[in-house]
Amino acid sequence: MAKSAEAFRTISEAANELDVPQHVLRHWEEVFGQVRPMRRAGGRRYYRPLDIDLLRGVRVLLYDQRYTTKGVQKIFKDEGVRYVSELGRRAAAGESIDIRPVIAEDNDVETSAPTANGAGHSEHEIAAALAVSSALSPDVERTLKVLLARLELVQEALDEATLALEAIAPDDAQDDFDIED
């Protein structure tokens, strides 16, 4: 009998589902700090559905898109955990994924072609973004980049907190956390 999609997976089940050896999953945990399965007493790993999506996204980037480890780390840094997880969900759904970078000739700005929701950036959108970018002073542009980086860190922390809450609070116990009027 197969497990439901919401069930946690052991490392052997996750490795079979992703078609990679177990030692590769352990290596990805070391190399990509964003990959953090739950651990029970004795150190046994349990992969949540979100962990499987994230690992599938890493697999797509490394094996299908042929990124290096450093390239995937850069994607994590630039695009965030949600983006890589979405790639994994899209791969599981059988959608084609092509995220090779688009290089804007004006400023050699690199942007990923598809966004996390699957829609690509049109040439018009990229040109408009470059026009706005060139209209900003370097100080304002630098400040905006710092703020964006901080917001991405906050989003990652919120995602991790959500995962932790989901792991300790089953859906039927969610009513205990609802605020009454």
Question: How are the SSEs ordered, and which strands pair?
Answer:
Elements (H helix, E strand, L loop, with lengths): L10 H8 L3 H10 L6 E2 L5 E2 L2 H16 L4 H11 L1 H12 L8 E4 L4 E4 L10 H13 L2 H31 L13
Antiparallel strand pairs: 1-2, 3-4
Helix pairs in contact: 3-5, 4-5
Number of discrete domains: 1
Helix content percent band: 55-70%
Structural class: mainly alpha
How many angstroms separate the termini? 44 Å
Q: How would you sum up the major sheet?
A: 2 strands, antiparallel
How is the quaternary structure best described? single chain
Task: Count every helix, treating DSSP H or I runs of 4 or more residues as helices.
Answer: 7
**Number of DSSP strands?**
4
Overall radius of gyration: 19 Å
Mean pLDDT: 76
- What's the helix-strand series? HHEEHHHEEHH
Can you walk through the features of this model?
- It is globular, with a radius of gyration of 19 Å.
- Mean pLDDT is 76; it is low at 102-122.
- The strands form 2 sheets. It has a two-stranded antiparallel ribbon. Strands 3-4 form a two-stranded antiparallel ribbon.
- It is mainly alpha-helical and 181 residues long.
- The protein is built from 7 helices and 4 strands.
- Helix 3 crosses helix 5 and helix 4 (69-79) packs across helix 5.
